[in-house]
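Can anyone check this?
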Amino acid sequence: MSAVNKSKSYTDREVIALNIVWNRLISVCEEQANVLMRVAFGTIVREAGDLSAGVFNANGEMLAQAVTGTPGHVNTMAESVRAMLAKIPAELLAPGDALVTNDPWLGAGHVFDFVVVTPAFLGKNIIGYLASTSHVVDVGGLGWSAEGRSVFEEGVVIPVSKLRRSGELNEDILSVVAINSRIPIEARGDILSLLSCNDSGVARLTELMQEFNFQSLETVSDFIFERSRRGMAAAIARVPNGRFFNELMLDGYDSPINLKAMMDIEDTIIRVDLGGSSPSIPRALIAP
């Protein structure tokens, strides 16, 4: 997270204005999500809302997320955007570009979930990124099965790549996905739906920047991080200090899997230790 200027104070007028912008950013994300639900092929996206959409600043840090979506996708996407930009940094991006991957070690945890990241430009400068994640209907392999003993059996993996270059689709990437899928049209369509929803977000973010005469999102980023930190610290402070334990037994594959957690709460900090849980198993029941 960006370094937060904890001593920063805001006038009442600034607080109101920045909260308006913050809510507008959430609206940008929500429009992204709604576009994705309308144009996706997979029913898991259209009917279950299994997706995430978010606005990120120029450093790849999440500023807002859609209300529609799943926590797992949102939180993994928050990390995957920076991981993708580490592979293809901002200086290698141009207007009309978009990045894509379904690498489970960088993305949402399994090969069916694709992440698409689209830079938003104001003039020649990147002001932020629009990102989205959803479940693509089929990418080959064993599919929805716990039989896989390695990620290579689960389906095709796409490394961080340019899905679009200066407005031109990378048909090589789309062809690799399609030829490995049992339903190639739907698989291609699901990936393009992520691209479409990001494009709607880029348009709305650019409009917002022009409306408020912003040249960057730095000020609103600092405000969001500082207020979020304070809000989280206040929420944790309402919980009694102490050490708490819980465990959960899952069916597993050949034998049950036991998950254990120890949580230490100290003033405004929560620490969680999963030590003592069952070790990982060579089956497709776990995610990075």
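Reply from J.R.: I decoded it. DSSP finds six helices and ten strands in the chain.
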